[in-house]
Write a structure and sequence with these properties.
There is one protein chain. This protein has a domain of 88 residues: RNA polymerase II/Efflux pump adaptor protein, barrel-sandwich hybrid domain (OB fold (Dihydrolipoamide Acetyltransferase, E2P)), CATH 2.40.50.100. 18% of the residues lie in helices and 34% in strands. It has a six-stranded antiparallel beta sheet. The protein has a three-stranded antiparallel beta sheet with strand order 4-6-7. A hairpin with a 4-residue loop joins strand 1 and strand 2. The protein starts with 7 loop residues before the first strand and ends with a helix.
Amino acid sequence: MNFPDNLKYTKDHEWVRTEGNVAIIGITDFAQSELGDIVYVEIETEGDSLDHEATFGTVEAVKTVSDLFMPVSGKVLEVNPKLTTNPESVNKDPYGDGWMIRVEMSNAAEVNSLMSAADYRKLVGVDA
């Protein structure tokens, strides 16, 4: 399982990559593997300002539907357009083509409270 060291992670299995004041957010390799085949991603919060831990969408897999939670507060700038026609890209490339949203952070310091890759590995019980 892959947990890139350059990302930050949440207890709810989202990852965050920052580019200046913008956060790119998706779900982790662990999360997509637990969900199984992802068949639909619903994110209707583009343009909305959301608080840390607010729900920004849902991901539907063959087994279940799971909420997606904001790891940082901010305005949703963009939803990955590929997810409409290719939701399986979350399974194939969760840290690349399978990203979910871009957010303009309202408080970039919130990133500092997120987990490192090593801490996330411990949370999910995967050795480094």
